[in-house]
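Hey, quick one: can you model this chain's 3D structure?
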Amino acid sequence: MVSCYSSDLKRAHKTAEIIATKLEVPVITDERIREAYGGQIEGTTKAERIERWGEKWYEEDLGIENNKSVVERGLAFINEIVDQHPEKHILVISHGSFLRQLLAELVEPVSQNNRLNNTSLTKLHYDGQKWEISLFNCTKHLN
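Sure thing. Here's the predicted structure for all 143 residues.
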C-alpha cells in the first residue's frame, strides 16, 4: 500500500492527483511540504528584482524563507509520516528547492547545489536510523 502526500500548492497538487488516480489512492495535502517561501520576490523576474531593489537584491531582507526554516518544517513532516506509516511506501510530491534542501539534510551525498529536474524521481529508504538514496533525480520516465 502506498500513501500519497502533496504540497497544497496548485502545481504539485495537480501532479499528485494525476499520479494518485493511476495508483487508486487518495492525495493527502500538507502545507509543510510547500516550496520555500520567496517573500517579496514571489512572482517576480530577475529583471523586476533588479529594477525594484538593485543589482544586489539578493542581499536585501525581502522576507525570503531561510534554509533552516525549510529544513525544520520538512523534517517535522518526514518524522511524523515515518512514525505514522512504518513499513509503508510513501510518495511525496513537492517542489525542487524544498526537496533539494530537505534531501541535503537527510542524505549525505546530496548537497544544496544539486538541482532537481522537474518531475524527476528520487527514491529513499529509511532503515530506522539513517536515510539511503537508491535513485536520484531520475527523468527516464519522460523519454
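One thing worth noting: The longest strand covers residues 131-138.
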